[in-house]
Amino acid sequence: MNTIGKEFIEKTKYKYLDTSDQMKRYESPPLEADYDTSLPHVALPDPRTYKEFRVSIREAIERRTSVRDYSHLPMSREELSYVLWCTQGVREKVSGASTLRTVPSAGARHPLETYLLVHKVKEIPPGLYRYIALEHKLVHLPTAQGLTGRITKAFLDQEIVRECAVLFIWVATVYRTTWRYSERGYRYIFLDAGHACQNLYLSAESVGCGVCAIAAFHDDAVNQLLGVDGDKQFAIYAATAGKK
Fold it and tell me: What's this model's pTM, rounded to 2 decimal places?
């Protein structure tokens, strides 16, 4: 029986691909989505100065597990800065056309934008934020009242969305990858999201926090709440994080 999933795999095989826009010499898309620079922002401490590691990388890999029960203690601003950098941090800009980051990405295209629903982080007011990776800062996004309840509902009423310190939501900017890889790029953005989430698991473990990845959510509702169109940009993956 043919299914949508099987059709997706079949139609993104190399034999079906058109010439990519990169091969057509079209201009490459921006490295990061635009944002309103007039919005309030939160400067984050330099993640490379963070020293309070609890475990080695080997221990973090051994201990890594999904954590669904969090304490009432807040994460520190330094901890959040560190795990954000580990998931999408920019190490180097290459000729203005790509970035080298702390996670792998097909062709160094890095299509992900990170949104955060902050509940309990020291020195950062609760609310919805977007991580500006090129500047390592957070932009505080305007929202209506009751956002936490609406996002929790969009995530199938999973209580960990409400009880965690921070909810990470990764949004894919599709053209950043399909510009180089045509329709096959749709495969790669899902792989890239997995790379980012695994780095979140390991970096959080190293600073005494826990993570639970979430792929179950109502796509249209989450996209609407984040203000993305669901076509050129859409929510692809999420994870809760908090103190154990």
Answer: 0.96
